[in-house]
Amino acid sequence: MAKTAGKDRTIVAIAIVSIILVVVMGITSMQRERITTIERWIGNVFAPVQNFVMTVTNTIGGEVASIIDIKNIKVENEVLSQRVNQLEKEMVVLRLKKDELEELRGLKHALNYLYESADGNPIVANITAKDPGNWFDTFTVNAGKKHGVEKNSIVVNAKGLVGRVYETGDTWAKVVSIIDNNSSVSFQVLRDARAQGILTGSITNEISGYLFDHLFEIVVGDKLVTSGLGLYPEGIIIGEVTEVHTSKSKLLKTISIEPAVNFNRLTKVLIVTPNNSHQLQEE
Amino acid sequence: MKNLIIGIIIVGNFIMQSTALHNLSFLGVLPNTTLIIIITFAVHFGKNKGAVIGVIAGLIQDVIFGRAIGLNALAYMLTGYFIGMMSQKIIKENIITPILLTAISTILNACINLFFIYFLGFTTEVLLLFRKSIIVEMPYNLVLSIPIYIYLTKLINSKIMKKEYY
Known about the structure:
Helix content of chain A: 25-40%
CATH topology of the domain at 119-274 in chain A: Thrombin, subunit H
Radius of gyration of chain B: 16 Å
CATH topology of chain B: Arp2/3 complex 21 kDa subunit ARPC3
Largest sheet of chain B: none
Order of helices and strands of chain A: HHHEEEEEEEEEEEEH
Order of helices and strands of chain B: HHHHHH
Radius of gyration of chain A: 24 Å
Distance between the termini of chain B: 7 Å
Largest interface: A-B, 46 and 53 residues
Largest sheet of chain A: 6 strands, antiparallel, barrel
Shape of chain A: globular
Number of helices of chain B: 6
Number of strands of chain B: 0
Structural class of chain B: mainly alpha
Strand order of the largest sheet of chain A: 1-2-5-4-3-12
CATH class of the domain at 119-274 in chain A: Mainly Beta
Number of domains of chain B: 1
Oligomer: heterodimer
CATH class of chain B: Mainly Alpha
């Protein structure tokens, strides 16, 4: 008798814990305004350790890679110096255009034309750890509330859009990348801003999407940028079109894209706090 | 002493898995070393300890990365419990044991995750998920399960684990 009672007790305990976990799951599955103190503390303990290990592995990995790649570095050096020359020439032209643009912007402001711009002080952060599971694509960075990171801040790197901040702790923040299967981005084609659509990530870390206007002739190699609808400000590079499919009924044009950011080799990101346009709308 | 060492292994594994192990990802898939460690402990310590270790390991992962807290905790707890239940009926010294158990629990884990991810309203592509977790992740887990199992078995049977307290 005693033995069966003991057995029952473990099963009951497992059942109770399961139910509690399911309830907690239900409560926490939505994006929350604030995280609990316990979570904050666990995060505060783990973040510095992970940051340290990540830095060490990245340094070692980088050193090893550079020793192996020493032949390629020479070739790369030549290519890059040519590119610098080319870019310097372009820069002169762009500087002239920039002056003109600033003048026009001043004019726009003077005419009381409402315009949005991303806030001026991006925060540089290192990636401290990446989700070991294969279901979601989240990672943590070593900047948090103390540094001014807010929920839904935009995360970019030099190449393009990376993702958005999901939750923030004191000195760390959870970031959901755009290749996660639950994130979607509204885009426009760089060469024609009227062609817009929506991209979503997937479980296999590929981004695909569709165009609102199925008649638009999108081609492989077209560059896509954010359209400014929704969370992300306008004009951040997302990636390049690699495939175009037209459905049989020809009413939907789906595309696959190659993101501009290499998510496997990501170590540093820039966090831009949300712009004030939302507040303007609320007022 | 035993609990302390188990704790250190679980936490250490989590830190390594989320940082250094990313350099070993294959086709964008990481091996689930947490799962292998939970299996090994459940085999040696039985279902109750297996379930507790599973909950703790899962909760750490959920709090740091999770979109819904409790998902991994539940999956790992049930895995630990079921493997622990089987532990009385299997030969622990056989090399086939970790391979077979890892295969079973990878599938079990994928099913539990899939079930809840679906009901929590996250988007899922069932076929893609299965392709990823069964075809790519499982062989990777199986290969890694052998050294981890052998090493941890040695550690568990060593004297240091049997000491009460220092």
